[in-house]
Amino acid sequence: MRVMTSSFDSHSIPHSSTLNSIRNDHGVHRGVSLSEQLCAILGTSMSSEGKEAVWLCNLSEWPVYATLGGPVPIVNCPSFSQVRQTLSHVINRIQSFCHTNSSNPPLSIVGIIGTDKLISQVVKAYVECLAHKSLANLINHLRFVVIPSTSSLFYKLIEGIDPQLDNLCRDLWDRYGDMNHAEKAALAAKIAAWPNTVMSSKLNMPIGEAMLQLTADRDSDGGRVFLPFLSEVRVGNQQCEIENDDDSNNVNGFAQTIVSPREESVVSKAEGSSPPHSPQLRNVDGQELNMDFWPNTPPQQNTFYCSSDYPPTTSNTTPNSKKEAAKVTIKAHFKTLLVSRSPSSGSLCLTYLKEKRKDKMLQKLGMKKGQKQKPEEGPIPSQVSSIGRMLCSASGKHNELTVIIDGNAYNGIRYFQTSPQWQTHIKSFPIAFLTPNVCTA
């Protein structure tokens, strides 16, 4: 039997078995189970009038937001188990209403106050809880309202769409500590009133899919894990600094989380141009990788690539293999490898930076005695747009990868593959904005 555990996840991940029971020792109210908290917030049965709302926040990581808990119905979700149980509870209520009433249920609103870590857990629970096709119609009765950290990847995706939401995020994440009691109370009232203004309009954020092939020591069956993502997938290394949360003592820990935003400092230019609080690799030596990707259109030199210094090599294929003819193969020492969703199309965007070790060594050997090396200009990363699929593995039989998916790092990976679309009937993540009808479905 295949067993997967993670530092943030004591429940199973997709296509895996469960090892640990659900932990609930971080409840907002000590001695009260999560189910009892949800019943106290939502009631025992769903009403046909008005909208239902519950907010998820990791109060163990952000205890300052416990002060919102008066007007804002917050449930503490320090791990994936609590996130999944909360979302499952909400979906079961919608399903029960549909079975006992001829009318459509009111919208159920799930609020999220957190960083990329919590948001990715909610997305994962969302695709799991609605995985069965019989539940597909329930998607229309569920909305997510998100107040992401202003330095999160998710915030970068939605920034500028709704100015009111942008201001709310800055108030909560950047200015909350400097507010007086009256200002905090007004902000809490604004957050509590938000679900009542949510209309039928929504933004469907496409969900991508990452497939991770585990190494034998992580999984004797050589199993695969499928994980959703909204923003990006990048390759890390085993030397990157990571901080485990409360479930890190689990045996065979699978997933880890990059350095907490509270402890993360501003990175220098030498560490890359990633936004603050996104995964940062402290070791920039890179790794030998084999990468294959399939462009949605035939690759052309100087069309896809921002840098002509690193031209790709097309794999050897037979003329009859039309599918393989479009594949591009690159084998090199990569300092950076990042796959992100293209915001305006249903495809992926590949960004990578290769290390020119050979050129640097030849340059040093050719210098005369006492001659100083000329300052090297900053390398320009290559970028490939409109990618349909990407496959990446580490060079060498015994090498492993660390893959970072929307802020969560997974180690012990033999190879991984990304595609722009989650391969079930769940294709998107429906979010609503603070300004009504700011966007339409």
From TrEMBL:
<dbReference type="InterPro" id="IPR019381">
    <property type="entry name" value="PACS1/2_C"/>
</dbReference>
<dbReference type="Pfam" id="PF10254">
    <property type="entry name" value="Pacs-1"/>
</dbReference>
<feature type="domain" description="Phosphofurin acidic cluster sorting protein 1/2 C-terminal">
    <location>
        <begin position="72"/>
        <end position="434"/>
    </location>
</feature>
<protein>
    <recommendedName>
        <fullName>Phosphofurin acidic cluster sorting protein 1/2 C-terminal domain-containing protein</fullName>
    </recommendedName>
</protein>
<feature type="region of interest" description="Disordered">
    <location>
        <begin position="262"/>
        <end position="282"/>
    </location>
</feature>
